[in-house]
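pls design
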């Protein structure tokens, strides 16, 4: 079991169950004092740069949906399960569209009704999270 995220830190989302997950944009480097994740899920169109922690990469081009939806569902479920006892990070390039969509899917797994998950993430993570109509639809159908 890893020490949890500090809920007051930037990008940390508290799900209704109490699980804490950090969302962020990879274009903004971590400052030296920021804690590192124990596990990360990277949502990018191409292979992410190497990191020192365990991660999984889902091919998910910017402003789009995951290339393999079954693989994405499995990866999101794994991230949600691991967030019960680990510092899990979800990240894409900017930290809003794909990351917000993934966080909304985690909220659905955590019991938030699918029709309310985007609003939940916008209220508790970033008001501009989940950027496209098809990303919103993906969450509703998740």
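designed seq:
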């Amino acid at each position: 079991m890893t020490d949890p995220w500090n809920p007051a830190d930037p990008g940390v989302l508290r799900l209704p169950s109490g699980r804490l997950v950090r969302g962020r944009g990879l274009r903004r480097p971590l400052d030296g004092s920021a804690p590192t994740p124990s596990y990360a899920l990277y949502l990018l169109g191409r292979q992410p740069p190497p990191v020192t922690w365990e991660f999984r990469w889902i091919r998910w081009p910017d402003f789009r949906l995951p290339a393999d939806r079954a693989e994405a569902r499995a990866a999101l479920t794994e991230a949600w399960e691991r967030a019960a006892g680990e510092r899990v990070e979800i990240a894409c390039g900017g930290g809003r569209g794909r990351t917000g969509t993934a966080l909304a899917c985690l909220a659905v797994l955590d019991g938030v009704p699918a029709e309310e998950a985007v609003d939940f993430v916008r209220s508790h993570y970033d008001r501009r999270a989940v950027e496209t109509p098809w990303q919103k639809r993906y969450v509703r159908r998740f």
